[in-house]
């Protein structure tokens, strides 16, 4: 499922007309019909179409046109339809025009009695700030929604007032409970504050041929996409089939990270997990992570050469290496990383374990001159905004649109697969493609969840998944696993280790090729 900017959407529509004769009125019919179908399929359980009261706010452009088509279908299915034409200030209540002096009062009554209010005021054609009277109308709707919990607001294509390219919002923008977007999700959905205005997102099929979308550079992560990326699990497999993972990390102040990363690598199905830790750390892990094996490294005092040599000696036969969780940032550790990277770069491609660098691995790198030239090809890095800021020597936003350009630019410049983490994580490929996760869950904003993600990526790499795909699948499944935890615990109080048993369930959900979420 591709993500579009407004210009890309216009170009798709123009091509659909030129190449397939799908003119704007045809697309609008399809849009309104599919919005009606999605709406009916997702009515609240206690609502039936018969007698359902739906107020449509109709705008002056094609978004309003979509609303009118949808209204016709809902009326045919038994709903009572009220239409407010914003520009003309004309109100029709159940097929009767309301006389001009009565409009304001009757509109207010229609807002009060509506079960659903459909926002088809403005879509991708919004070109200026909302006028004061439109803001006043939307404010009245919002106020009604606050006072009457059973009222639902459904946005067609996008909530009016949201910038479809950037996710910026007009002060009058409406918070929807549900957004039925047409053809493709819009780029602005993935950035804040816009993301918060969407409610549940559904994608209406308007009949655009799939090949028109093929060259678009940005995709949304969906269950279907992730399904196509998962490694095969053949019946006659053994643990060698699914690859060995080595993790270099763990230090006295941060013992837990490597445990979380190692467990997560195993939970995505890697065949064997080895933790490269010092003898001093061994008792901590040996008693808590029974499934792992250990590569025992000499203590810090042994010096970087001896430590690097020991790690390198263990690497043979490993398909994936994660550097970073809880590693610390001592000068000898930095030296060890340098030597290991040098070793990896010198290996032929087929013998080289795929590399993931996270957390202190990234912090150590960012202290080195032109660090990106030290990485072997196809390295995955997974910075949070703070780490990204140190790597790029710039301030990095937690959620606004500037993240997308930055991720794209830096993946290209650094020649890495870059997962820029946060709500709506972006995965950028050095050749310009990007994938973005619409799923967000504040329960994940807690220490250790990043270690779990890095372990998942490494576990998929060990199974032969390509780096861009391994990062994409992990990002999606990580949030999906968190939603399973949140079904029980809500959106606070998750421990990173709670994610671990949910990871196979998330994979299982994707493996049976469930409909895309959002579908
Ligand atoms: N063109 C097509 O082929 C299709 C268009 N679709 C729908 O059409 C929408 C885009 O249609 P339009 O380009 O007509 O755009 P809109 O319907 O978003 O609005 C454009 C109209 O609103 C006015 N306007 C812009 N900013 C305003 C503001 N702040 N306050 C008040 N009026 C304002 C413009 O002058 C113009 O008349 C999409 O969001 C989607 O809903 C879909 O029906 C699918 C097919
Ligand atoms: N609101 C959110 N929605 C979705 N994912 C989130 C949210 N907040 C944090 N995350 C995810 O949680 C993880 C946190 O990682 P990180 O900041 O590296 O933590 P740590 O280093 O403590 O493990 C990342 O994968 C990030 O994308
Ligand atoms: K709208």
Automatic annotation (TrEMBL):
Enzyme Commission number: 4.2.1.136, 5.1.99.6
Cofactor binding mode and count: Binds 1 potassium ion per subunit.
Family matches, as CDD domains: YXKO-related (cd01171)
PROSITE patterns: YJEF_C_2 (PS01050), YJEF_C_3 (PS51383), YJEF_N (PS51385)
Binding site for (6S)-NADPHX: 62-66, 123-129, 157, 326, 384, 451
Pfam families attached to this UniProt entry: Carb_kinase, YjeF_N
Binding site for K(+): 63, 119, 160
Protein name per UniProt: Bifunctional NAD(P)H-hydrate repair enzyme
Organism: Ktedonosporobacter rubrisoli
Gene that this sequence comes from: nnrE
